[in-house]
Amino acid sequence: MVSRQLQTLYRDLQRAFDARPADLKKCGVLLAQLKIGLIESGLLLPNGEASLNDMVIARDILEIGAFWSIRAKDVPSFDRYFSQLHTFYTDYRSSLPPSKREFPLRGLNLIRLLTQNRIADFHTTLESLPLAADEISLNPYIRHPVNLERWLMEGSYSKVWNAREEAPAEEYKFFVDSLMGTISRNEIASCEEVAYDSLPIKDVATLLFFSSQSELLKYAQERGWQVDLSAGLIRFARKNDEQMEIPKQKLIEANLAYARELEQIV
Amino acid sequence: MASTDAKPPKDGEKKNEEKKNEEKILTPTAEIKVNIAFIERAVSELEPRFTHRVLRSLTALRKRTNDKVLRDAIEENYPADSAVKAKLLSWLPPATEAEMDVDSTAYPPSTPPSKPTSDPVPEVEIYLRLLIIHHFHTSKENYAKSIQLSNETVDKMQALNRRSVDPIAAKIWFAVERSYELGGELADARPLFLAAQRTAALRHDDDTQASLINRLLRSYLHYNLYDQADKLVSKTTFPTSASNPQFARYHYFLGRIKAVQLNYTTAHTNLQAAIRRAPPAKTAPGFYQAVHKLFVVVELLMGDIPDRSIFRHPVLEKALAAYFDIVKVVRTGSLSEFQATLTKHAAQFEADKTYTLIVRLRQNVIKTGIRRLSLSYSRISLRDICLKLHLDSEEDAEYIVGKAIRDGVIDGRIIHEKGWMECEGRKNGYGPDVSEVYMRRIAYCMDLHNQSVKAMRYPQDAHRKELAAAQGARERERELAKEIEEGDLDEDDGGLGGF
Fold it and tell me: Which residue numbers delimit the PCI domain (chain A) (predicted)?
């Protein structure tokens, strides 16, 4: 049974979380206390004896914790909350009433995997969703990361950029921003290096979604591009002509291996 | 342990013929009796080969059993007052009069009623239980009973703890899985499998281990638990002495896991191995079709176009019709058609669990489209690309073409100021990557050769005879050489003399 103290803490947390704007600091303090409370009553990792009502409360607390971690921009903490929630979402799926926060959180988890460029994990998680394939395109929370992944893979980066506006929940924006800042920008930059000889600075800025030139110049320096300010051009160094080299070592090794095998056969 | 499935073809043929003859002559009851004799021999001679032989006929035998056959088999092989017999018989419904009559007319006393005096080895009991479980699977009302019997049999097997049971145990596990699947939740059997898998690994019980790993993988994949399945694969080693069918299954499961994880090359190798190891298409059409479905999708995802002959194969033609449509669309590189085909066959893809994989093909469709354009035009405006590939905006087209150039799909560059793409023609077909492909193929052939050498079985002491023969040959050779030498000398002498 959940103790009285835990109940009041839980109610405090709900109030603090629902308040606009939410009191992040207070939530953090309350969550830490609540987690200790959950461990004491054996609810953090339920083992089948807890009552349904208590488990719903535990799940609620963890869900709030997961959202809170994102608002506080603490990704590892989100990761921890989500893995704790996993038990509630998979093993107790049939016994607990469904939570309306479940799919937003699952979607967030998917985006997190995308931002960390863990594409294989992304797909594994996607496969294990308790949704039929056609429901994926209907569920707004899941559809969003799935579309993002598709656009990233085919190279429609402008769609990824525009998707910030379509985020189904406030928390998604945090991830989409970081997605844009790290992965997409580097992807686009590496594409440009190969696809163009040179580009006007203005166009590079639009292609890379930079709003100011100074940001762009800093980025160009990081990647080692030659900036020609007088002509207003950025030149990309070509580096594919001289790398045609015959892998001698490998060929010799292979031939020796063949000789040995042939000797064994004959 | 010798693998019974990989042996020189000649031996296999002979066995097949033998089996055919057996089937023609023997009634199922008699066949069970023969099999029991084989099992006893296997146990007494410590030669698992005989047990494997019995188990190989299981599929054929399974279809011909019924309550009566099983009852007769039990009656015949156990002495009248045996406790085991009573227990086994309790699982089967009691005989009715009508059946008794049929017995006297349809089956003349083919087996002399020589009543055994003592219980046969416990392996026989397990074998009979296996047959009963399989028999239960044929009718719905017996599903609950089959789970009960499976559990009891598993307990019994573990209590017996005899190594000679192992080959039969492997089959029992398969039956257990089937019982749970038919009778209720497959997931309920997982703890049972996991525990048994640990024991089997500790005892180096290869047959059971192989069977159990496959059971577990199947159970995980059934519930889409790819994460757990992947972990299981990384934590276990699949026994190399496992039989071909088990290997085929294992490779198929691996292929599926790897395909989901975007590791298409490994998935491709695994699926290929699964196809090669699978039984002939006509014997196991279901497996053959399932593997090929996945294989086609993985091949498409790798950017290859599957061989057309696959779609003309009599067993596959119908099953792969939807996949053939997808291949055609990917080849043409039209996004709108791709979308249409996808929605048209969505239900089937979902049933095959390939839907999410096929959705991933979208980017391949675009890539093929761009490649076709780059081959046919030396210079094309981004706007035209956008129109031809049904992309949403020119901006997108620029990014997509840029990515295609970086990924090495096409060789070209974008002239941003003029808004077009210039292509530099095709790459020449020689270079390090060609030799790499060549090396990979050679390595595969070598491996195949070595594997087949390893898989061959030689009769014991045969090399002695060969040695003797070699000795004789060498002797003869020496004599011959001697003669030639002498002859030569003679001739020379003669020649010289003549001179």
Answer: 76-253
Residue A228, Ramachandran bin (φ over 0: left; ψ between -120 and 50: alpha; else beta): beta
Q: Would you state the torsion angle of the CA atoms of residues B158, B160, B165, B171, taken in this order, to the nearest 10 degrees?
A: -30
Question: In whole numbers, what is the pLDDT of chain B averaged over residues?
Answer: 78
pLDDT digits (tens, 9 = 90+) for A45-82: 666 666 777 778 788 888 888 888 888 778 888 888 88
CA distance A194 to chain B (A): 6
Any B CB within 8 A of A18 CB: no
- Of the candidates A200, A203, A251, which has its C-beta nearest B435's C-beta? A251
ipTM of this complex prediction, to 2 decimal places: 0.73
- Judge residue B67's burial from the number of C-beta atoms within 10 Å of its C-beta, 0-12 exposed, 13-18 middle, 19 or more buried: middle
Pair type for strands B412-415 and A233-235: unpaired
Q: Do B405 and A194 touch (CB under 8 A)?
A: yes
Q: Is the pLDDT of residue B5 over 70?
A: no
With an 8 Å Cβ cutoff, are B431 and A244 in contact? yes
Q: Is B208 part of a structural domain of the chain? A: yes
Which pLDDT belongs to residue A250?
A: 83
Closest by Cα among A146, A116, A114 to A129? A146
Residue A169, both tokens: 């929940």
- Average pLDDT of the segment spanning A200-224: 80
With CB atoms and an 8 Å threshold, state whether B406 touches A124: no
| Structural domains of chain A, count | 2
Q: One-letter amino acid identity for B52?
A: H
Examine the domain organization and report whether B14 and B55 are in the same domain: yes
Nearest to B111 by CA among B21, B32, B24: B32
Q: What is the mean pLDDT of residues B183-206?
A: 82
pLDDT at B104 over 60: no
What total number of domains does chain B contain?
Answer: 4
Residue B248's pLDDT band (boundaries 50, 70, 90)? very high
A135 and A264 together in one domain: no
